[in-house]
Amino acid sequence: MSNLDPDPGPPPVGGTAAEKIVTIERFLADHQPADATGSLSRLLDDIALAGKLIAGRTRRAGLTEMLGKAGEINPQGEEQKLMDVYADNVMTSLLSGHGRVSVIISEEQPAPMLVDESAPYVVVHDPLDGSSNIDSNVSVGTIFGIYRRENRTIPPTPADWLRPGRDLIAAGYVLYGTSTMFVYSAGQGVHAFTLDPEVGEFLLTWSDLRYPAEPAYYSLNLSSAPQWEKGMSRFVEWLHRDDTPTSTQRYIGSAVADFHRNLLHGGVFGYPGEVDRPEGKLRLLYEGAPLAFLAEQAGGRGSDGVQDLLDIHPTSIHQRTPVFVGDRHLVDRLEEFLFGV
Ligand code: AFP
Hints:
With about 350 residues, the chain is of the alpha+beta class. The chain has helices at about 25-30, 40-60, 80-95, 230-240, 255-265, 285-295, 330-340, and strands at about 15, 70-75, 80, 100-105, 115, 120-130, 140-150, 170-175, 180-185, 190-195, 200-210, 215-220, 250, 265-270, 300-305, 325.
């Protein structure tokens, strides 16, 4: 959908539908603090450009033989897809060389990449989350988070990136779905832009997205239920009760797409810990924390089942964590079930 359409229709949720044509560049410039240098806006714009390039290649993946495996194993022990490698290269290229980013942490790289010792920002990202779905034409996404370095007089140290999500100054994702959307927050609400492929611009679609009061969905991989703690199953039983509004399960298996749908229509997305894998599957730094930051900015929250995801202090860059993000009341309730309150 583009806001060039004569009637883009009402937003499905809390949030303001764009009434004028506003490019992402213009929106970022208009929404930065008066005393800002503009470097964060330009960094977000760089990521939006990466999103356009990845979207273009994803769309043509079947034609350009990008659907296959790259033959390498990433730091998570997962097989890399050709598109993972392409998306990672695009992100690295666009984040380097402008004096804005000092260190890049990528799901696809075993160690932090030092780009520019004196630059102000650290970017954490998963260049193409859900890539195992690409072969079957299912939505995938790029997730990112941005930290500001506190001390630029010394070279970057792990203290610059092993930081809780509370320190994020911005986070977002690009969703490659039926349309391409750039959704971000720099701490003042969540804003969504749709790529108009005809003009090649991300145009404002909704500003200040909020979770709707009545959540519609829960998104959990129920086939893993036998491996979950008992509290998780009690939570799902509670969701199915007649007096609980959220009884419909929808699960894509692509975190950005599941999160995005639930942001628009209300609900919770989760990947719990399992008996043999209590830490779960998703990564704290570049999946859990950025999504929790967005959820909180939209009136929701993120938890690992015990504590707020944004309060967890990472000890390694590829650390995994159980993730529950979405509607605030559902996440609160889930914590109660998990801990038998
Ligand atoms: P891939 O990037 O390997 O496709 O994994 C996607 C993902 O990390 C996340 O996007 C999904 O929510 C989750 O895994 C799905 O995992 P299950 O298939 O185990 O439900």
